[in-house]
Design a protein that fits this description.
The protein has 7 helices and 2 strands, in the order αααααββαα. It is mostly helical. The chain has a two-stranded antiparallel sheet.
């Protein structure tokens, strides 16, 4: 895979992530939807993925660097997928017992450690299971889950391509014509 192709793919993921972040801020500040704790965790995962892809697009890494960037992006995608999946489960389980933490995240951070806060956020708050906005009958967490799964598939595919290209290359300094023709 050429460096230009790698850069353009990282830039495309950056643009897609920036658009999704822009939509989330638009829904919050223009429409008036307040995000719950799980929404904020998804937004952090998306911001980290977007930042990693921007840095990778500017850097233009070689195969090893691209592998490391894709691996970091894959970790952000996994975290976002888990968070979005949990919120989708909370929205679709009407019998779920919600924790009594409410939506006062600053007060929660002041009174407990960050591990306890994340655990309480994953248990759900009163505003997490509410479906406040839908598009094509999918809620915001469902759209977020689709985006993170798409980024997860893209990251796994790119990592497998890079590993496959590294395995097919000769180990010595020789340049085999068939290996160079496919790069």
């Amino acid at each position: 895979m050429s460096a230009a192709c790698t850069r353009s793919l990282f830039f495309t993921v950056f643009v897609a992530g920036a658009l999704v972040l822009g939509v989330s801020y638009y829904l919050q500040y223009s429409i008036g939807l307040s995000p719950c704790g799980l929404c904020l965790l998804q937004r952090v995962c998306l911001a980290m993925l977007t930042g990693i892809c921007l840095i990778a697009a500017v850097h233009g890494p070689g195969p090893l660097g691209a592998s490391l960037y894709w691996l970091a992006g894959l970790l952000c995608s996994v975290a976002g997928t888990v968070t979005a999946w949990r919120q989708v489960l909370l929205q679709n389980d009407p019998l779920h017992q919600l924790s009594a933490c409410g939506s006062d995240l600053p007060g929660l951070f002041a009174s407990a450690s960050w591990v306890c806060v994340v655990q309480q956020i994953f248990n759900g708050s009163f505003d997490c299971p509410q479906r406040s906005w839908t598009l094509l009958d999918l809620s915001i967490p469902e759209w977020s889950l689709l985006f993170f799964v798409a980024m997860l598939i893209l990251g796994v595919y790119q990592l497998l391509r890079l590993v496959w290209a590294a395995v097919r290359r000769p180990l010595g300094g020789d340049s085999a014509p068939h290996a160079l023709a496919r790069d």
